[in-house]
What we know:
This protein has helices spanning 20-26, 50-58, 145-160, 162-165, 204-210, 216-219, and strands at 2-7, 32-40, 61-71, 74-75, 81-82, 85-94, 98-105, 120-126, 133-139, 190-195, 214-215, 237-241, 249-254, 266-270. It is of the alpha+beta class.
Amino acid sequence: MIFSTYNIHYGVGLDGRHDVARIADTLADADIACLQEVVRGWPQNGYVDQAAEIARRLNRYYRFHGPMEADASSVDAEGRITNRRRGFGNTIVSRWPILWSRGVMLPKTRIESGYDLQRGFIEAAIAVPSGPLRVYCTHLSYIGTAQRLPQVDALTAAIHGAAQAGATWDGTPDEKFFFQDPAFDVPAGAIVAGDFNHRSDGPEYPRFVAAGLVDAWRAAGNSDADSESAPNKGRIDHVFVTPDLAPTVRRAWIERGNPASDHWPLFVEFEN
C-alpha cells in the first residue's frame, strides 16, 4: 500500500499557477492520500470543488471536511439567491471505500494580531484489503506552539479514545429508519498524517511519541538530515502510525522539487 500526505496549497504551485490536474497526477500511485489546504466554493478558482475534482481524476473515494467555512453566495438582478459555502480544510482520498468518517474541530484560541484559521481533522475507517484501517488527516496551526499543543492533545486523545467513542452510529437501526447497516467496529491500527507545522525538534513531536505513535519516516530508516517537506521549513509534514503498523513500513520518501504546491508530497509504502 502506498500512502501519501500532501498540503496542496489550494492547487497553486511554486510557479504561481493553479492546476489541480497536476496535484492528481502527483498522487496517481497513492492508494490513500491525506490532503490539506483543499478548497471548494471559492470564486478565485471558479467555485471548484477540489476534493471532488481530484477524486474524479483519480477514480477514488473521498471525504472532505472544511473546518474553516464561510458564505460565498450571490444574488442576481432579480434577487434570486445562489447559495454557496466556502470551505478550506482536509480531504482523504482512497482507492477503497471509506466505511465511516467524522470531521472534528480542533481547539482554537482567538489571536489579537496576525491571521489563523479554524483547524480540524478527519477520522475515517477505510476498507483496505488487509482489513479496516483508521486514518486521521489533519492540519495544525502555523501560528506557534501555544495554538498547536492543545491541538496535539485533542488529536491524540481522539486517537486513544476511538474505541470508546465508536463509529458514527451504534447498533443496527430498525426497519423504519433509512438504512439498517450494523455499526462497524473501530479498527485498532491507525495512520495519523498531515501538515503538522512543526519539525521533529519542536515540543509537539515528543507528545505524539509519548502517545505511543511511531514516526513512519524514522521507522523506514530515514534521518532528519536533508528531509525537508516544504522549502526552507524542514520536515513539517508527518505520517505517524500505531505500533502495530510500524513493522510494516517498508520505505518513506519525499518528492522534492515537485512544483505543484508550496509543499512536497510525503509517501510511505506499507507491506500489503
